[in-house]
Amino acid sequence: MPTNLMTPTPWHTRFAPSPTGTMHLGNARTAILNWLMARKHQGSFSVRLEDTDRERSTFASEASILSSLAWMQLEPDHPVVRQSTRLERYQNMARALMDKGLAYPCFCTEAELQKDREMAASKGLPPRYTGKCSTLSPEEIHKKMEQGHPYTIRFRVDQNIPGIEFTDLIKGLMNIPIQAFGDFVILRSNGWPSYNFAVVIDDQDMGITLVLRGEDHLTNTARQILLYKALDMVPPRFAHHGLLVDTNQHKLSKRTGAKSIPELMRAGIHPLALVHYLAGLSGAVKGKHIVGSLDELVERFNPRRLGRGNAVFQMQELEQLSRTYWHKLDTEQLLPHLEELASLGAPWHNLSAQQQKALIATVQPNANCGHDFAPLLTPLLRLQACYDPEAIELVQRQPNGHIIRTFLELVLDFTALSGHPADTPLPLDEIGRILKETSTRAQVTGKELYLPLRMGLMGTSQGPEIKQLFTVLTCEQIIRRMQDACVLAGIARD
């Protein structure tokens, strides 16, 4: 059954993580779906850091989350909102609810609350606040405050209503029984807001029109709808997608070995592959054909196909899709994701943009992740080759030394006569002529011709095909490497 997420009006969405650790895959999937929804409907995407957990929230986690979003290119349309800067706003709204009799101070200690939880558990009941402080008179409240008793502010839940009913744009009509929770805290004793209270005020102030998140927030949604009504606010629409699970249907977590986004970055996963894969697990992106950009992914994104069930994450599938992206994207699309090439130094930076692209295209078929490019390019940037034992043995075997020397002589003759620049590759037509002439003089063809030349040029059997090597190695490199190979073969040039 299709969802009701298609609309002619813009969706204003948000991603609201808590900066208490690195971003995990489930959070990333929620961020991706919200970003795609906003772009699909010409809306806006916001980021809010819910940093009200003073003990666990850190600037390092905040930086990691924002870095992960930037790596996936999920840029927000507005400045990042931090809940820790909005305390006065939450406190004022809590007082407004108290003035209306919809909230009250609770002086219960943690020890008292724990005793009530244990009592409920012994009776097989879910933990719920007993409402002990809800009946305190104004005089009793004033006295306790005068005596300096710490207190929280609780929202008064009307237990006479049958439940909280709302239409979920993915799951359909939902009804959460009011017995699922009692009066809940909206402001802690330290003046900081609870999760449910802060997000209601934030979403209203930020103009959020769609709250798209995991189904584990369904009970939170019920509480938030009660708060919207009490605050005389129009709630946004809600949509709850299934959770990200492993092949055993267990929710993905660090405890089950799920990798975080920074770990996937370090593993060389292509960011567009990750966004594509996680969006595709929802069922809203058809097919596994790679996309050239996030704009193309937006075009293929169909919100009506967002699935209600859980999505099974398989690392092998992501790695395979990532390899496909590294292999098939053109060099213009690859370059922004190859920051590690800066480590190659002057030999790389002194090349023209055209030469750099040619080198990347040469090694691309052998690169399975982003970290493979620098090691694959390094041998192509050196003047000389490093010969492994297999290459040395093959070069020294006759007639291979003779083949290498013949090829070298033809290259030297061409450069001497033509004045071809030493810092550029040989012309393609000249490569063909020299190879043909080498074949004729040495009386070898096919593998017997190409393998010795390859070993002489690269010093290993691994890497790009020899025809590609000739398009990126300069004349100077070819000559120096073949001279070294002749020395290895014990053959001096006449």
Automatic annotation (TrEMBL):
Q: Indicate the quaternary assembly.
A: Monomer.
Enzyme class (EC, first level): ligase
Organism per entry: Desulfoplanes formicivorans
Q: Which sites bind ATP?
A: K254
Q: Where is this protein localized, as stated in its record?
A: Cytoplasm
What biological function has been recorded for the protein in this entry? Catalyzes the attachment of glutamate to tRNA(Glu) in a two-step reaction: glutamate is first activated by ATP to form Glu-AMP and then transferred to the acceptor end of tRNA(Glu).
- Domain Aminoacyl-tRNA synthetase class I anticodon-binding stretches: 341-485
Q: Which domain of life is it from?
A: Bacteria
- GO MF, one example: tRNA binding
The protein, known as: Glutamate--tRNA ligase
Q: Where is this motif: 'KMSKS' region?
A: 251-255
Please indicate the residue ranges that the annotation assigns to the motif 'HIGH' region. Answer: 17-27
Catalytic activity annotation: tRNA(Glu) + L-glutamate + ATP = L-glutamyl-tRNA(Glu) + AMP + diphosphate
**Gene Ontology biological process:** glutamyl-tRNA aminoacylation
What is this enzyme's EC? 6.1.1.17
* The family this protein is said to belong to: Belongs to the class-I aminoacyl-tRNA synthetase family. Glutamate--tRNA ligase type 1 subfamily.
GO cellular component terms? cytosol
